[in-house]
Amino acid sequence: MGYPAPRGGRAGEGRQSQSRRGERKILTVSELAARVKDLIERSIPHVWIEGEISNFVHHASGHMYFSLKDDRSQISAAFFAGDNRTLKFRPENGMKVYAFGKPTIYGVRGTYQIVVSRMQPAGVGDLEVAFRQLKEKLDKEGLFRADRKRPIPRYPRVVALVTSPSGAAVHDMLRALHRRFPLDVKIIPVRVQGDGAARDIAAGLERANRLSGADVILLGRGGGSLEDLWAFNEEIVARAVADSRIPVVTGIGHEVDTTIADFVADLRAATPTAAAEMVVPDQREVLESLRHSEMRLARRISERLELLKERLARFAESRALAEPRARLLTEAQRLDDQTDRMARALHNLQLRTADELRESARRMVRAHRTEQSRCGALLTEQARRMIQALRNWEGRVAGRVELVNEKLAALDPLAVLERGYAIARNVESGATITNASTLAAGDAVTIRFRRGEADAVIERVRTEAPGETK
Length: 470
Hints:
The protein is of the alpha/beta class. Helix content is 47%, strand content 18%.
């Protein structure tokens, strides 16, 4: 039974057309897609293309799927996890990029696409974009806020130095630390560039936080290109700096280099050496500050003593203290002696303390690194003891002055007048009257009250007061 002939044709023509059709090669859809794929891949092996990302999807498998388009066309793109793992920036819709890959056909849908193996932002480097993206992200989280930065200890005893043990920066930092203030330095060696450096630095910061007695962490390395310093721009390092319970000071690269770790750190220095100088004080400045404190304290004591001496002199010259003048002069002389002894003691204390501090500094510089912590603590303790001794001394002087004031108050007749008593003097002899038996009827006397005086004449003398018994 044959095929029906096309309408308007003859039966013989239909059988001839059927015969010719049987001689043709008929392809399946998959076969055609495979041929087109092979043709495209052989004629266009790999290409760089420029386009704008749209419909971006980052699959849970790690693969990335998106479209690349320009004003007139677009092409689907696949960027598999094995290749995009090293990508420094995060692709986003609307971002213009350069993509390097292999055009091909996706057989399941029969659509052409490009399988991307490399990609970078158009116009700027991928590292610059990655830096900007991470900086914006951490800034929104508040990791750069000034109120979360911890204060740096003024006199640290132990510094944890996280850096490469083989670079020039570690020697520069150690020299600066030991020159300014000898102390205990714990070096935590890490890789500072290359694959795995960021994880190494983060682990080093965690080890520094586990050190016993560490007061501050110094994170540093020498200068280099953006690629060389990139480990300090990784999120894992920024998180480790932010999570540190010990204050972190960074000295990374040169003055023009600023990393993400610098933004998160509690204090940032322009260079590794500058960071070391920020971490510890200058021992010469500490000694000079102590000397100035001694001088200020001595001046205050001297001024206070001079003021008391003037008050004593005024009391001694007053009419009310005419009779106990000799006693007051004795007290004044004794106060002068105490002042001289205290001045000599202060001078000797200054000399002895300065000698001890200089000798301690020399011993600490000569000592092995394992002894530097003890020496630094000794210097700090000696300074504390000296300041405490000066404070104790000032307290003792103030106590003695207060005692003299009490004695003066006890000797001051005016203080007695304040309580309602009066002082009587014989007008003729001017002597103070302390016994009624020295008077006779008709004697003229002057009576001194708290305010003012009065003249009187004795009418009668009683040698015993009412109620008084012998």
